[in-house]
Write a structure and sequence with these properties.
Distance between the termini: 40 Å
GO molecular function: tyrosine phenol-lyase activity
Keywords: Lyase, Pyridoxal phosphate
Structural class: alpha/beta
CATH superfamily of the largest domain: Type I PLP-dependent aspartate aminotransferase-like (Major domain)
CATH class of the largest domain: Alpha Beta
Strand order of the largest sheet: 2-8-7-6-5
Enzyme class: lyase
Number of strands: 14
InterPro entries: ArAA_b-elim_lyase/Thr_aldolase, Beta-eliminating_lyase, PyrdxlP-dep_Trfase, PyrdxlP-dep_Trfase_major, PyrdxlP-dep_Trfase_small, Tryptophanase_CS, Tyr_phenol_ly
Order of helices and strands: HEHHEHEHEHEHEHHEEHHHEHHEEHEHEE
CATH topology of the largest domain: Aspartate Aminotransferase, domain 2
Family: Belongs to the beta-eliminating lyase family.
């Protein structure tokens, strides 16, 4: 018999959760314009909107907050963070930022010239926005399997080397400032990149004098999948695998709000001293002094500890295990999800869930809204709304994947919470034909998924027909 395991931690503090009635949730959803980003936290029961900054910190991290050195320059807390990044990730130069997109902004400004091309293994919203605002064109070079949610491929985040080579041949290596390699790939379903593929990408880029910059936000989760799935890796520690991963790159942007186990902060790291010097000047302009970069000393103390806690093998095994606990139950119930289950979230396949809705009726947005209405569980759309519009034609970008992301915060919920989520989704699936599409009433010019507002397309204005909803 396979023995069950428990969380590798015990709970010291609790927070009471909101348990609103159906009518109260309906009112909250209407006020939010059917956009889960605009729902007040006080009205949410189980919050799976994001794993960014929603981590529960450890007792060691909370204790470290009291020792934070808030000096404007030369903070002792900064020295601890710098050492942790060098020890765990292996990069020589580090610059703190207020969060990951601060690092993306600086990297994009310094590396990109108008007319450049930035290839990547599927886009991420803010990353691509920074690249495009600085004049680059994003080119997707992920393997084709990543765009099919039903394919069971162990490393769906891998770069298609032939696609990368074709782009180099077409535009010239001088027009490619760097390859943006995400580990793991968020919008593909939290899918990992193999060690072999990372090494091959790095060697190809070195041959053409092109940098490889990692989006390292969930790199520890990627290391876990390498340990589990890649030949020759099973007996290595997560820490050793991670450090080798990072060696096949020239630098990274990091949102510390994920795998660094803190609520705010990030950094830009690299091995090129010239790029570091230029980046240091922009940090002063956009973030703060190079010794705090928009972070308080106490936050740097907590991040320095979180970086080391995240590579604990027991922690990361539980982290991935909880995501699988949710995902496997949905698979067993016949719910269409992205396979295999990824590292930080379970992704519902909204196209298969709501086949009666066209992509222009925003099925993922509608499904996320319906889930909140049904149970108070907040999730997020990752489909046509998140993809935005083509900067040249103005038409909707239409991704192959139309997903609802159920993102699990680290060390926050128990598996009982995941069971509640399963029950709600299964009930929704049984009455899926009663869920209508949405129209967009307000569209922001950029990153529209954050602030767009919608309304139901039904004649009576109901998202779920009244005769079919659970009372």
């Amino acid at each position: 018999m396979k023995r069950r395991t428990a969380e590798p931690f015990k709970i010291k503090s609790v927070e009471t959760l909101a348990m609103l009635s159906y009518e109260e949730r309906k009112q909250s959803l209407q006020q939010a314009g059917y956009n889960t980003f605009l729902i007040d936290s006080k009205d949410v029961y189980i919050d799976l909107l994001t794993d960014s900054g929603t981590t529960a910190m450890s007792d060691a991290q909370w204790g470290a907050l009291m020792t934070g050195d808030e000096a404007y320059a030369g903070s002792k807390s900064w020295k601890k963070l710098e050492k942790a990044v060098r020890d765990v990730y292996g990069y020589q130069f580090v610059l703190p930022t207020h969060q990951g997109r601060g690092a993306e902004n600086i990297l994009s400004q310094l590396k990109i010239q108008k007319g450049d091309y930035v290839p990547g293994n599927m886009y991420f919203t803010t990353t691509r926005a920074h690249q495009e605002m600085n004049g680059a064109t994003f080119v997707d070079i992920i393997i084709d399997e990543a765009h099919d949610p039903t394919i069971e491929h162990p490393f769906k985040g891998n770069v298609d080397l032939a696609k990368l080579q074709r782009l180099i041949d077409k535009v010239g290596a001088e027009k490619i400032p760097y390859v943006c390699l995400a580990v793991t790939v968020n919008l593909a379903g939290g899918q990992p990149v193999s060690m072999e593929n990372m090494k091959e990408v790095y060697e190809l880029c070195q041959k053409h004098d092109i940098d490889v910059m990692l989006d390292a936000t969930r790199c520890v989760e990627n290391a876990f999948f390498i340990k589990e799935r890649e030949a020759g890796q099973a007996n290595r520690s997560i820490a050793a695998i991670l450090k080798e991963m990072m060696s096949y790159s020239d630098g990274c942007t990091m949102s510390g709000k994920k795998d660094c186990l803190v609520n705010i902060g990030g950094f830009l790291a690299m091995n090129d001293e010239d790029l570091y010097i230029r980046s240091r000047e922009l940090v002063v302009v956009y973030e703060g002094m190079p010794s705090y970069g928009g972070m308080a000393g106490r936050d740097m103390e907590a991040m320095a500890i979180g970086i080391r806690e995240a590579v604990d093998d027991h922690y990361i095994a539980h982290r991935i295990g909880q995501v699988r606990h949710l995902g496997q139950q949905l698979i067993d119930a016949g719910i269409p999800v992205v396979k295999p289950i990824g590292g930080h979230a379970v992704f519902l396949d909204a196209r298969a869930f709501l086949p009666h809705l066209s992509q222009e009726e925003f099925p993922a947005q509608a499904l996320a809204a319906a889930l909140y209405l049904d149970s108070g569980v907040r999730s997020m759309e990752r489909g046509i709304v998140s993809a935005g519009r083509d900067i040249t034609t103005g038409n909707h970008n239409k991704p192959n994947l139309e997903l609802v992301r159920l993102t699990i915060p680290r060390r926050v919920y128990t598996n009982n919470h995941m069971d509640v989520v399963v029950d709600s989704i299964v009930d929704l699936y049984e009455k899926r034909d009663a869920i209508c599409g949405l129209k967009m009433d307000y569209e922001p010019p950029t990153l529209r998924f954050f602030n767009a507002r919608f309304s139901p397309l039904s004649a009576n204005g109901e998202l779920i027909s009244e005769e079919n909803r659970l009372l």
